[in-house]
Amino acid sequence: MQSLEAFKRLGLSGQILLAIRKYAFTTPTPIQDKAIPQILKGDDLLVEAQTGSGKTACFAWLILQQISERKREGKKIVSALILTPTRELALQVTETLVNFGVFLTNRVSVLTVIGGESIEQQTQTLKSGVDIVVATPGRLLDLLDQKLLSLRHLNFFVLDEADKILDLGFAAELDSILQNVPGVRQNLFFSATYPEKVLEIVKRISKNPLPVKIDDVTPTVETIFQRVIEVNKEKRGMLLRHLIKEEKWSDGLVFVASKVAAHNLCGKLKKAGVRAGALHGDLSQPERNKALADFKRRKIDFLVATDVAARGIDIEKLSVVINYDLPRSPADYIHRIGRTGRAGETGLAVSFIDHEDQEHFKLIEKRAQIKLEREEVAGFELTGEAPEKVRGALPVKGKRKSKKDRAREAKQLKPQAT
Ligand code: AMP
């Protein structure tokens, strides 16, 4: 018998509990345990949480509950804005809001405001009244500029995957959006990491957000079997097809570095009879939605994606994540492999590396505090020599000097008073 006591204790209303029961959740996740009571108090929060931690539900439940309780006579004004870095994530957040709002007596309406879909339709829906807007920055600004949307009565402002929003260069857009919102509101930031530049922007938006963090932010990584296979770049496609067949991989996310690579690799896999789809920014929104839906419904077994397109997407129980191309930053390595081995299951993460990737992968290992054996697969052994000046040649993020290194260098240049 499912007990909802633990959820109830957090302060969730009976109507939200009904929806939670429908999804058969038994206990709040650690981040829900910590964040929900604080959100209810009205605090601004800085939540350090990854995809898969149950973070969407944290804000979705509370926003639905509070808007529904405060609603008068069915009047609809935009009371909550949730900003996400990608269209897919925006659609996914909307889905969560809709799913958990089904038992509310005062219904709460949600609109996804994203590019690639009809602006007219979004405008029409806005005219008939909307309570929550889930948006990517570009289209939202379009609507604000044309005065088709007002955020003057906003109570909740959520920045989901804040680090990615800023990584994608949305800082200026964010500033423009904030000029349209009232000074008094509750700000909730969710991000897997908080690099300094994100914190700077957070400071501009909220004076004193309360940090919320679970002790170990990467617990899932321990349940992931990580492999590193050395292979020449040009043989990776063949090796992948070989491993899919020989090791009977059934469903997986393949990460590549570019849209072109996603397109090409997907084509090759399909040609070899693998049920694959691509997810990248050059596809139209309906194509992106279809690829994702096909993958979730298991119509395809492998999704070949770029980091940006796959960010924040919740796909249950992936059995394998393949780094066909290594991620640029060590933090992205953790994000990527976190897609497998969820909820206590064992997952598999495989990285293909060649001579040029060696240094970069060492850096990833250092940051992730892991040390992995290099493997080779018979028939696909790495050949050739390591190029001489690999180090300086790689335009990877992790190769930039660290703050510590810069400080050390500055110290050496400047005579220090003792
Ligand atoms: P998120 O971190 O928001 O991407 O959520 C990851 C997944 O966890 C989603 O599929 C949610 O439906 C699921 N989830 C959220 N809260 C819980 C919970 N308390 N128990 C089990 N699953 C949950």
Task: Walk me through this protein's architecture.
There is one protein chain. The chain is α/β, with parallel strands linked by helices. Helix content is 41%, strand content 15%. The strands form two sheets. A seven-stranded parallel beta sheet has the order 3-4-2-5-6-1-7, sandwiched between helices. α3 (30-41) packs parallel to α4 (55-70). The protein is globular. The model is unreliable at 390-402 and 412-418 (pLDDT under 50). Residues 25, 28-29, 32, 51-57, 314 line the site of adenosine monophosphate.
Task: Give the secondary structure arrangement, pairings included.
Layout: H1 5-9, H2 14-22, H3 30-41, E1 45-48, H4 55-70, E2 80-83, H5 87-100, E3 110-113, H6 119-128, E4 132-135, H7 137-145, E5 156-160, H8 162-167, H9 171-178, E6 186-191, H10 196-205, E7 210-213, E8 224-230, H11 236-246, E9 252-255, H12 259-271, E10 276-279, H13 285-296, E11 302-305, H14 307-310, E12 320-323, H15 330-337, E13 347-353, H16 358-368, E14 374-375, H17 390-393, H18 403-413
Parallel strand pairs: 1-6, 1-7, 2-4, 2-5, 3-4, 5-6, 8-13, 8-14, 9-11, 9-12, 10-11, 12-13
Helix pairs in contact: 3-4, 4-5, 7-9, 15-16
The chain binds adenosine monophosphate (AMP).
